[in-house]
Amino acid sequence: MCLLVTGLMLGWWLHGFTDKAQSFPVQSLSDTAPPSISARAEQSTIIDSGMSPSVLPEMPMRPSAAREFEQLLQQGDYEQSIAYYDATLAFEEQHQAVLKAVLENYLSGRVQACDDESFVDLVDRWLGAYYADIEVLLLLAEYQSNCSSAEEAARTLQIASTYALRPGQRDKVSAAVSRLILATQQRLSGKQQWVDLLGFYEYLDVVDLETQVSQLQRAVLYARTGEVERSRKLLLALQEMDDGLDSGWTATLKRQLARAVSEPAMDDQAVQDEVGLTRRGNHYLVPALLNGVDRIALIIDTGASMTTLSSDSFRRIRSAGMRYLGTQLFNTPNGMTQGKVYRAESIQVGEQFLHDLHIAVLDFETSAAFDGLLGMNVLRNYRFNIDQDRYVLQLAPRG
Q: DSSP secondary-structure letter at 379?
């Protein structure tokens, strides 16, 4: 009789388990698939999504779930992949950690593949659901550093720093900032692209990610490009902050400051160009000519890493001098969004010309008054100043 009762209860339990397994919202895949799981799965932490999970049927996690999740990623079915991951929110944390490690392993393998737009697509979808995922933000910053824009990588790390609340996360972000600075310095100094490197250091200042070392490098580059007075002021500020505990650092500051003092001041050179501006609230609009054909109006934005056009404005462009380069993720006031990147033949602001310029095209609303943003990939090439009394943009090319 005991065996009979036990058998009936076991049969009832297995029937209930089968019903729940059939209701799982992701199509089952073969258990014989080859993908492997990274060893980081045991060390991965659970992200704090900041959102409530959907109500899903509770069930134990099957051993093949990690393989099925990885197969969905490999197939490029990212919407279904995220739905699959969402389902695990109803399970034990250790199960969620395993799938998170699979995701990170998959993304890590694509960080170097700059022509792989699937990376951008997956990260865009993932951060749309889990915007505070530090690990994915760090991978995105690495991808941007390698494949698109060091300034956008810095902006991503600035966002990551605002979400780095758990123990150890801020250290991870700080380490990523140091790696970004070193990699960008090595890449641009190797090509002697001093103006681009100076623009990168200035952007670090804009997004509040500067280190003392990057400030010193910025001061050195100011002197190299003839902006001696700026170099002196920055070196004096660093010297004032110096606590004297690092004798090597103190000696370096004194040596650089002595060099700056011996150089003749060149910051008072006559401005080479003045461009009339139009004020709109707290913003200033500057007229520009794209590819020698299309007249556009752009808001001056030192926080924008790349000059940007709205999708509507881009559709009105008549010139053929735009070559599609691919998609990137951009940080905007409304959050992270995908944008298409084109290479423009030229852009003219006043009498100043720049050639082979990258232009981002994003979906955002503009008025009839302006078409987009004038970003740092243009502004970094000049010593510029906005005369708010006369409503003019003063430009002097950096040498």
A: H
The residue among 63, 150, 77, 66 whose CA lies nearest residue 105 is 66
DSSP state of 60: P
CA angle, residues 216, 220, 224, in degrees to nearest 5: 165
The residue extents of the domains of the chain are 191-262, 273-397
Please give the span between the terminal C-alpha atoms of the chain, in angstroms, as a whole number: 95
Give the pair of three-digit tokens for residue 343: 């290479």
The amino acid present at 13, given as its one-letter code, is: W
Residue 310's DSSP bridge partners are 362
> Could you tell me the maximum CA-CA distance found in the chain, to the nearest angstrom?
103
Burial 249-267 (b: 16+ CB within 10 A, else e): beeebeebbeebeeeeeee
CATH architecture of 273-397: Beta Barrel (2.40)
E strand residue ranges, the chain: 273-276, 278-280, 283-290, 294-300, 308-310, 322-332, 335-349, 352-362, 372-374, 382-387, 392-397
Which helix (DSSP H) or strand (DSSP E) does residue 278 occupy? strand 278-280
CA 189 to the chain's CA centroid: 22
Q: How far apart are CA 160 and CA 386, in angstroms?
A: 31
Query: How would you classify the pairing of strands 352-362 and 308-310?
Result: parallel
How many C-beta atoms surround the C-beta of residue 111 within 10 A? Answer: 18
Tens of each residue's pLDDT in the chain, 399 residues: 555 445 544 454 444 444 433 333 333 333 333 333 333 333 333 334 344 444 444 445 566 788 899 999 999 999 999 998 988 776 666 678 889 999 999 999 999 888 778 899 999 999 999 999 999 999 999 999 998 889 999 999 999 999 999 989 999 999 999 999 999 999 999 999 999 999 999 999 999 999 999 999 999 999 888 888 899 999 999 999 999 999 999 999 999 998 887 766 554 455 678 999 999 888 999 999 999 999 999 999 998 999 999 999 999 887 778 999 988 989 887 788 889 999 999 999 999 999 999 999 998 876 678 899 999 999 999 999 999 999 999 999 986
Global pTM reads 0.78
